[in-house]
Specification:
Structural class: mainly beta
Number of helices: 5
Strand content: over 45%
Number of strands: 53
Length: 889
């Protein structure tokens, strides 16, 4: 039976067209129109639809897998020089036909140092522009306001249009900051990376959205980190315009050092008249050197000139020089001579060498010299008005191996006595301790004699003293003298003998003198007459000693378990020495009558001559000392075992030292030197010292060889001189914890301010404390008290005199309100029962402005000033100031 398959005519009709279509299209290429915008949009930097013209293949390659191809690709002229990174939290829309990329919600675009964030950012590739805008939420609040950052420039605007290639752009309603200045402009045009033009804008140093004050202008140009220039400007306060117009404005906003004028401040004084102070010019000569010139001018004819060059080189040296001249012409109460003029000068120089510049060699200078009356006529500076001493020192030091050489020049000057003393030159040579018997290659334990050490210290000083009113070069030569001192200590370090440390030693000293001084009694005039003899003279001294020291510890811990005190620990460190010193200086001593009552005293021909006289007499006896330390351990406030007990120092030290001479004919027991130091409650610092004389005195104050406890007295001695100093400081906790800022470095890598410049700033703060009130500290107080006295011979040996001096200092402030602060600084001389200096101030914080009132009603320079100025350092010279001085010489 034959079976045939049935064929559906519908299948044949569908199969034939498909087969014909396959045959026609199989050998053919795609016939599509070439569209280039798609590939250009995605890969604009490279045309991937065309093959490269040149393929260079290394013919020496034998393995195809290692073949190195160099492709010469043509880059479009309008391509970008860096890639663009973009993100968005909502969506990223790519419009292929228009070649645009649109970012929504927290959009961010970065390229190189450019950083743009906004709610919506539109990237237009053909135009190479970015358009950033914001949106509003259902409550009408702005969300995602465009924020543009590039290099040091930051701006916030409603709309930002920016060309990536030319770095130009236009912004609407723009807020930007450059340095300390905040700018707001209705429209701004960015023409380069750091240059902007603005239309209808304001600028201020107040960081609020609605500033307390601002300056309005129609046109302005800003060069970032350099300057801002504007057309006619007028100020406004709290949005209210002030009808004061300035033709143009120039605001330097460059960072670091730059030249410029220094604006003066207006003052008024009854003694000096009207004046302008601290006006001048600051000039930067190069990155290492600058100079400041300031001047004060007064209507009564007085003036002052200040020249202040400074120099610095990183890792090498830094220094500053200040030369001041002042012609103080002030009003007096004498009708015949209404004005008095005084010309004075002062020079200061400070130089510091970096220790890494020349290891082993150092050079430093600290010079403060000039007219002795200069400080007296410095206006509105009580600190300098009461500074009676001027000191200078220039030192060069060289160290090599075990030796050190120091060459220096020193200067002392007293404005009360007007005595000037020069130490020039001052040469010191030191040899570190050497051990001559020590083996070069020690093996095993060292022998006792290997611990024998010898050292050397030598000093040579030239000295000249004169009064400034009698100064002349010939007088300087006549009063010049010199002296030298050499010391050779010999020590032996022995191993401890149980709890005792034994240290024998020998000390030899020699002194060279340039003159002798002889004092005799003038019976005709009833006074001591002094004569001198120049030459070269030598004095010698030697001493032998053996000292023993140990430490004794004692602890008392028998306190109740409920007591806060756990234990008290007492440490005693006694020392005992046996010493012998022959009398090598007796030949230099003599007796001289000092008054009409036939009282005599022993003096040396080298008294008052550098380096001083050796003590007279043979000494053979003991020296003793005792030092004490007391500490207390208290339980922690919480009974937690995690907290350790706290140690409290009750007595940091209490020491007493003295000696007893068996060979002396009289006054065998020496005076006792007593000193104590303690810190109570970790707040109150106490330091005290005294000299206790165990012998009695007669009615003229002359010592007698009779102990104080003899004759029925229960006293152990007379306190001949002593001192006490107490200081403390308290302050409240700060309102906000502020992290300390590290000193920033400028573009040249140097610290922005030298130590001398910091001292000048501190001096300005002391003069104007209200301008620097710290409202973060609600209150603070610093108190110090000092007392000292001494009993010595009068300069003419006519008897004894006791000099006492005590003073009380205080410095405190407190907040009346969160925005008002009151402060008071004072210095009270208890000896004269008078306030020597008093300064009161009142400060008001007004966010970006500050009101300060400083009053000095007591002192040589009394003053009153009130200042209203911006807190910004850039606009510090923009101030309203009223100052009055009252001089009381």
């Amino acid at each position: 039976m034959k079976i045939s398959r049935k064929i559906n005519p519908k299948l044949i009709a569908a199969f034939l067209p498909c087969a014909m279509l396959l045959i026609v299209t199989l050998p053919a290429n795609g016939n599509y129109k070439n569209k280039t915008f798609f590939c250009n949009s995605l890969t604009a930097f490279q045309d991937t639809t065309k093959p490269t013209k040149k393929d260079s293949v290394n013919k020496n390659d034998t393995l195809p897998s290692n073949r190195s191809d160099t492709l010469n690709v043509k880059v479009s002229k309008d391509s970008l020089d860096a890639q663009i990174d973009y993100t968005a939290s909502d969506s990223v829309v790519l419009e292929v036909p228009t070649k645009k990329i649109i970012l929504y919600n927290k959009a961010n675009v970065k390229q190189k140092d450019l950083d743009l964030t906004a709610y919506k950012i539109e990237l237009d590739q053909p135009r190479k522009t970015m358009v950033a805008t914001y949106t509003r939420d259902t409550a009408g609040k702005i969300v995602g306001q465009p924020n543009f950052k590039q290099a040091e420039n930051t701006m916030v605007a409603d709309t930002i249009v920016y060309n990536i290639q030319t770095q130009k752009g236009i912004t609407k309603n723009t807020n930007m900051q450059s340095g300390e200045i905040y700018f707001y402009n209705e429209e701004a045009k960015k023409i380069s990376k750091n240059e902007f033009y603005a239309f209808r804008g304001r600028f201020t140093t107040c960081d609020l959205d609605t500033p307390h004050f601002a300056f309005r202008t129609k046109k302005m140009k800003l060069v970032s980190q350099k300057m801002a220039v504007s057309g006619p400007i007028h100020p406004e306060f709290e949005g209210i315009p002030i009808p004061i117009y300035i033709p143009f404005g120039y605001f330097p906003i460059s960072q670091g050092r730059h030249s410029g004028l220094l604006m003066p401040t207006f003052t008024a004084s009854d003694q000096y008249g009207l004046g302008l102070e601290n006006g001048g010019y600051y000039k930067v000569l190069n990155e290492y050197f600058d100079v400041t010139l300031r001047a004060n001018v007064y209507s009564y004819g007085g003036w002052a000139l200040f020249l202040n060059p400074s120099y610095r080189k990183r890792y090498r040296y830094t220094g500053v020089l200040n030369f001041s001249m002042q012609n103080a012409r002030f009003l007096t109460e004498d009708p015949k001579d209404p004005f008095t003029s005084t010309k004075t000068f002062n020079i200061t120089w400070s130089h510091t060498q970096d220790s890494k510049a020349r290891p082993g060699t150092s050079f430093s200078a600290s010079v403060n010299a000039g007219s002795t009356q200069y400080n007296k006529f410095v206006a509105n500076n009580p600190t300098r008005n009461y500074a009676n001493n001027l000191n200078s020192s220039i030192t060069y030091s060289k160290t090599w191996d075990n030796y050190n050489l120091t060459v220096s020049a020193n200067h002392q000057q007293n404005s009360n006595t007007r005595l000037v003393t020069l130490n020039l030159p001052s040469i010191g040579f030191t040899a570190n301790t050497i051990y001559p018997f020590q083996r070069k290659d020690p093996v095993g334990e060292s022998k006792w004699y290997e611990k024998l050490g010898i050292g050397l210290t030598s000093t040579l000083i030239g000295d000249a003293s004169f009064y400034d009113s009698l100064f002349s070069f010939q007088h300087l030569i006549d009063t010049f003298t010199w002296g030298a001192q050499h010391q050779i200590p010999i020590q032996l370090s022995l191993p401890p003998a149980g709890p005792f440390q034994i240290s024998p030693g020998i000390s030899y000293s020699q002194r060279w003198y340039a003159k002798k001084v002889f004092r005799t009694w003038d019976a005709v005039n009833n006074k001591v007459v002094t004569n001198s003899e120049k030459g070269f003279f030598v004095g010698n001294d030697i001493s032998f000693g053996l000292s023993v020291s140990t430490a004794i510890f004692g602890t008392f811990d028998k306190f109740k378990p409920t007591s806060k005190i756990m234990a008290i620990r007492h440490v005693i460190r006694p020392t005992l020495g046996i010493n012998y010193k022959p009398d090598l200086a007796s030949k230099d001593y003599y007796s001289v009558q000092i008054d009409t009552f036939k009282h005599f005293t022993r003096l040396s021909v080298f008294d008052g001559v550098y380096p001083g006289a050796f003590s007279e007499g043979r000494f053979g006896g003991i020296t003793f000392g005792l030092d004490n330390n007391v500490e207390m351990k208290v339980r922690p406030k919480n009974d937690s075992t995690a907290e350790e007990p706290k140690k409290i120092r009750l007595l940091d030290g209490l020491s007493i030292n003295g000696s007893y001479n068996f060979f002396a004919d009289s006054f065998q027991l020496s005076q006792f030197n007593i000193s104590a130091r303690s810190t109570l409650f970790e707040k109150i610092n106490i330091t005290a010292s005294a000299v206790l004389d165990p012998y009695q005195v007669d009615s003229f104050g002359i010592r007698k060889d009779v102990y104080m406890w003899q004759g029925g007295s229960h006293s152990l001695g007379r306190v001949t001189n002593g001192s006490v100093a107490i200081s403390t400081s308290f302050q409240s906790k700060p309102k906000e914890q502020v992290k300390p800022q590290q000193p920033q470095q400028d573009e040249s890598g140097l610290l922005p301010m030298t130590l001398e410049e910091q001292q000048a700033q501190l001096q300005y703060i002391r003069q104007n404390p209200a301008e620097f009130a710290d409202f973060n500290i609600p209150w603070s107080i610093n108190i110090s008290y000092s007392f000292n006295f001494s009993r010595n011979f009068k300069p003419d040996f006519s008897g004894f005199e006791t000099k006492t001096f005590s003073s009380f200092n205080w410095n405190g402030d407190f907040n009346l309100t969160p925005k008002w602060k009151v402060g008071l600084n004072g210095y009270y001389d208890i000896t004269s029962s008078s306030i020597q200096s008093l300064t009161m101030y009142l400060s008001r914080e007004m966010h970006c402005w500050q009101l300060s009132i400083n009053v000095t009603p007591v002192g040589i320079q009394r003053s009153f000033n009130i200042t209203i100025n911006p807190r910004s350092g850039l606009l510090r010279d923009l101030r309203v100031n009223r100052t009055r001085y009252f001089t009381n010489f």
